[in-house]
TrEMBL record:
Endpoints of the signal sequence: none
Domain annotation GGDEF: ranges: 351-480
Name by which UniProt lists this protein: diguanylate cyclase
Cofactor requirements of the protein: Mg(2+)
Catalysis performed (reactions): 2 GTP = 3',3'-c-di-GMP + 2 diphosphate
């Protein structure tokens, strides 16, 4: 590895000043050729194309304005009135101006008619209105047709403003001038700076090596066909516990774990990877791998950023998003998401699914009598009992206030009823530090039979209501095959 680097440095030192000068000359000639190509493209392609486009727009504008003139020539009115109306119409055309500059779109309009087809004195309708013809004006000759029999009766000649062409070419021409100027400046800059740039290449490489070594985050260089790392900065040696082998490669258990987890395949891709060596605490790192060529070998530059603390914070936030802060149970939002998921599974695989909904009897009386601190203690203890009375596959959570909900996958109504009764008995046996505090629950149990989520929860809620009506401290369940509509409410 070190021999390869030495040969590369020796090659750089043998670059002669004459070669540097030739490189600068070649670059300058390429820039000059590019400038000429831009100029030729403008004069031979862009400018004629834009002129044709501007002339087309001017013709379309003239046609749209002259259409109103044809309707005035029907021969039913006296020639003097027709002439006055034509003058008024042409005047309005000449007054049509650009709002920004005040320049008229059409500078001059002339009308010539074939009087063999008109019943008016020859020359009585010929008009030529407007200012002097401007330099570069677009000339559009619009045929005039009789409004009734559509015979050609004359020609309207419009001298349109060249502003269409200026609008199309102004910004583009300025841009091309700036581009040409920039290219010429680039040629001059390349001519004088390329030699100095090449002379500084070796210095830049040394600076990059220094930056690589001084980087505060781990960085490694690995050849594609080698298992070990060819280079690693001090931060990488410490973070990955790298050791230099006899072959000059860097290796270590954590490094092998990183390779085993897989490196990113694409440049710009970042991948979160868990690093864990024997006897060490698991760490999370954000890993990137950039393909490159180093000393003529296909390699990749690997960068790592430790995100262990960030992952811990993310895990705390994730837990907080679906956990009730007081009891440590799941919150209502997560319960409904999980219940919807379990209902999908029950529909797909046709297995049983039940739920228990219960709340604490006379909980408001406990808060009013013993205070909210004791009330919170009661909720925490009930949450603890729920965790001990349910299976690992069951999902227990705080439904809201003093109400709790338990989802029991793969449990039919009878099995769910047994769990609910066990919860009721365990809650009644809780001993609290505050004297005189006794807690009982009333609950409802329901088995899923294909109804939608709200209806499923509503069945259990109605049986909970019936348990309270029956005297509290009991759990009631819906008989098999009875939906919400059959409860008698």
């Amino acid at each position: 590895m070190k021999a390869d680097d030495s040969r590369f440095m020796a090659l750089m030192r043998r670059l002669s000043p004459r070669l540097e000068g030739y490189l600068a000359l070649i670059f300058g000639l390429l820039g000059l050729i590019l400038t000429l190509l831009v100029a030729l493209h403008w004069f031979l392609v862009l400018e004629p194309t834009l002129r044709a486009e501007a002339e087309s727009r001017a013709t379309v504008l003239a046609q749209s304005q002259i259409q109103g003139v044809e309707r005035l020539i029907d021969g039913a009115q006296p020639p003097e009135q027709i002439r006055r109306e034509l003058i008024a119409a042409l005047g309005s055309i000449l007054l049509f101006k650009d709002e920004k500059t005040g320049e008229p779109f059409i500078h001059r309009v002339s009308l010539l008619f074939d009087y063999d087809l008109l019943r008016v004195p020859p020359g009585s309708l010929d008009l030529d209105l407007g200012g002097a013809v401007c330099d570069g004006c677009f000339i559009a000759r619009i045929p005039l047709y009789h409004p009734r029999d559509r015979l050609l009766i004359g020609v309207a000649t419009c001298y349109s403003s060249p502003r269409f062409l200026r609008n199309l070419t102004g910004d583009l021409g300025t841009t091309l001038v700036w581009v040409a100027g920039f290219i010429l400046l680039s040629i001059a800059y390349a001519w004088f700076q390329t030699r100095r740039f090449l002379r500084r290449l070796r210095e830049s490489e040394n600076n990059l090596r220094a930056v690589f070594e001084a980087a505060p985050f781990p960085m490694l260089l690995q050849a594609d066909d080698e298992p070990g790392a060819r280079r690693a900065n001090q931060a990488a040696r410490v973070y990955l516990d790298l050791r230099e082998e006899a072959s000059g490669m860097l290796d270590g258990e954590t490094w092998r774990a990183l390779l085993g987890a897989g490196l990113p395949d694409r440049a710009g891709e970042w991948r979160e990877t868990q690093l864990k060596a024997a006897g060490e605490k698991a760490r999370w790192a954000l890993v990137s791998a950039v393909p490159m060529t180093f000393s003529g070998m296909a390699s990749r530059l690997i960068g790592l950023a430790d995100v262990s603390e960030l992952k811990a914070v993310q895990e705390e936030l994730r837990a907080a998003s679906f956990t009730d802060a007081l009891t440590g149970l799941y919150n209502r939002r997560y319960l409904y998401q999980r219940l919807a998921h379990e209902m999908d599974l029950a529909n797909r695989y046709r297995h049983a699914l039940s739920l228990i909904l219960f709340d604490l009897d006379f909980f408001k009386r406990i808060n009013d009598t013993f205070g909210h601190g004791v009330g919170d203690e009661v909720l925490v203890e009930v949450g603890r009992v729920l965790k001990t009375c349910t299976r690992e596959v069951d999902v227990a959570g705080r439904h809201g206030g003093e109400e709790f909900l338990v989802i029991l996958p793969h449990a039919d109504l009878a099995e769910a009823g047994e769990v609910a009764e066990r919860i009721r008995t365990s809650v009644a046996q809780i001993e609290f530090a505050a004297a005189g505090v006794e807690v009982t629950i009333s609950g409802g149990v329901a088995q899923y039979q294909g109804e939608h989520l709200d209806a499923f929860v509503d069945i259990a809620d109605r049986w909970l209501y019936m348990a309270k009506e029956a005297g509290r401290n009991r759990v009631l369940s819906a008989p098999a095959g009875v939906l919400g509509e059959g409860l008698g409410f």
